[in-house]
Every structure is written in C-alpha cells, then in structure tokens.
Amino acid sequence: MISSKDILKRRILIVGSNGRLGQSLVKKIMNHEKTELMCSSIESESLIRDVEYRKADITKKDQVKKLVLDFVPDYIINAAAFTNVDKCESERELAWKINVSGVEYLAQYARLVDAHLTHVSTDYVFDGNDGPYTETDPTNPISYYGRTKLASENSLKISGAKYAIVRTNVLFGPSEFGEPDFVNWVVDSLTGKKKIRIVIDQINNPTFIPDLADGILKIVDLNKDGIYNLGGREFLSRFEFTEKIAEHFNLDTTLIEKIVTKDLKQPAPRPLKSGLITLKAETELNYKPRSLKEAFILMTKEQSEL
Ligand SMILES: NC(=O)c1ccc[n+]([C@@H]2O[C@H](COP(=O)([O-])OP(=O)(O)OC[C@H]3O[C@@H](n4cnc5c(N)ncnc54)[C@H](OP(=O)(O)O)[C@@H]3O)[C@@H](O)[C@H]2O)c1
Fold first, then answer.
1. pLDDT in tens, 214-232
2. Domains and CATH numbers, the chain
3. Class of residue 201 by CB neighbours under 10 A (exposed 0-12, middle 13-18, buried 19+)
4. CA–CA dist 119, 241 (Å, integer)
C-alpha cells in the first residue's frame, strides 16, 4: 500500500549552494524524484543550471526570513560561510556576521517552520595540540575563524531548532565553478615545473567533497541530530598529501619543498596535530569515505568529462 509519506516530497533548502560543498550537494540531489530542492547563495544566479534558486544574503535577517518562510523546507543544509581563514582575522565583523549571525537567523526560522538544520563546521574549533579529535573532545579554537565556527555551533545548540553539526577538514575534490582545489593547484604547479613549499607539521584527514556530501545527505535521510565528524580515511601531513598527489599524477616530487607552518607567517594560527575521527559516522551513518587513491582516480575521470 502506498502511504502519504511516499507521495509527499521532502523539501530541502541548500544555503551556500554556489560554494564547493554546495555545488556537490546540489548535483547529488537535483534529480531526486522525491525531493523538492531550493538552492540559495549570495550571488544573483545559481552556478548550476536547471535548479530552483533564490539569492539571499544570510547576514540579512529579513532575507533569511523570506527565504525560509516562502519555501517552508523540511531540511536546511547550511554550506555558506566566510571560509578565508586569514581574512577572518582582519575582517572580523563580516566574519562574525556570516559565520555566526547568519546561522542564528537560519536556526531561528528553521525552528519556526519546524525544519531540521544541518550546519557545516570545522576541526578549527580545536587547538591542534593533541588531535585527531572525536565529537566529544573539548574545543579550544586558536583563530578567529575557529571562534566564529564554534560560536555558530553553540548558537545552534541553544536555538531550539532540530539540528546536526558536521565537522570536516581540508576539503578537496572536483567543483565545476570557482577556484581550483588543493589537488588541482598542486597538479597545475608541478606540471608547470613550479616549486611549491608545503608544510610538514599540519596533520589532517583530507576530505573528498563528494564523500562529505554523501555523509550530509545520510544525516538528512536518517534524520540524525547532534555532532558528526566527516573526514577522509587517511591521516597525514600536508606534505605527505602533496607527495601522494604528485606520485598519483606522475609528477616531479623533487619540486615539493618542506617547510614548517611558522615559516609561512600567516595571519591566522593553524591547528597542527588535528584531524577528525569518523567512527561515529561510520557506525551510525554507514559513512564510507574513499581512499585518497580512489578519490584521485575519480577526479581524473570527472575532469575529463568536464
Ligand atoms: N574548505 C575547507 O577546507 C573546509 C574545511 C573545514 C570546514 N569547512 C566548512 O565547510 C563549509 C563549506 O566550505 P566550502 O569550502 O564549500 O566553502 P566555499 O566554497 O567558500 O563556499 C561558501 C559559500 O558561501 C557563500 N556565502 C558567503 N557569504 C554569504 C552570505 N552572506 N550569504 C549567503 N552565502 C554566502 C559564498 O559565496 P562567495 O564565494 O561569493 O563569498 C560561497 O558560495 C563551510 O562551512 C566551511 O567553514 C571547509
């Protein structure tokens, strides 16, 4: 017998749909027959064609109100953020508005229409002294970006909205629009015989964006609440990650120069020994991130298809 649940479509609003993660989420669900999708970002048009799209600036409460109350979603996924970690140090007011106030507004109107809000956060909520981290480890951000992301998590927790927080780290993967990701930057640089300086003291588990999008959509499918770490399968330094890229794409590894983070003199401090343990997501969501090798192979295929 067909129940009303089978007939009714779930309504999903993706905020930050023009970003790297946003684009991957949109591509994965735009053709779901049981999903009514609304995309939104700050630009006047959607980068991905043939989707319903509404321009909205999440720092403007009235625009968030209109976006949410007009569409009345069952689920909201927030992939919008001020993601330039160094600029967050100098543009603190804007960083707070986007990363904290924007989430407060989304949570406020999610609660009003009883929508579930999945919000994307980061391992930068930790200090990087003793990672990798589980979902319950104590937070201690060392950068302004990290502080805004932790504040966004806290504001969501007290908002009264149904929510999930997804922490992730070092995103890479195909995106049709926007700046090249780290993998493509390494490939382009080494192909052009350019020397690159890469840090040996930042450890993470780099996350393939399509895996992250799958994990987030599992949270939605299973209606999960709480915090989930979604990271990659391998824990390694940025230098080792770069070597693996070079080896996979048959490029000259001698062009990769070892440096330490403090040599870069970046405005924002970075958590060094970091990374996210994904056991909870593997157990509860059946989250299965690809290996780096599998991800690189898929990226090569995707690129040849673009
Ligand atoms: N990238 C990483 O390595 C990484 C690591 C850990 C966690 N994360 C988290 O993962 C999430 C997705 O990251 P991402 O790499 O996909 O970021 P992204 O490519 O920078 O995408 C963020 C999107 O949000 C949009 N946006 C900015 N301000 C907005 C506003 N006021 N209203 C509406 N939209 C706005 C951006 O538009 P503009 O481009 O026009 O500004 C962009 O399209 C973020 O929450 C980030 O903090 C990322």
1. 999 999 999 999 999 999 9
2. 9-175+207-233+274-290 (3.40.50.720)
3. middle
4. 27
Which atom of ligand 1 is nearest the CA belonging to 212?
A: 10
Residue 151, φ and ψ in degrees, nearest 5: -60, -35
21 CB within 6 A, ligand 1: yes
Q: Which of 39, 42, 202 to mutate to test the pocket of ligand 1 (most atoms within 8 A of CB)?
A: 42
pTM for the structure as a whole: 0.96
Q: Looking at residue 287, what is its pLDDT?
A: 98
The span from the CA of 181 to the CA of 3, in Å, is: 44
Structure tokens at 207: 């996350």
Cα–Cα distance between 252 and 247 in angstroms, integer? 8
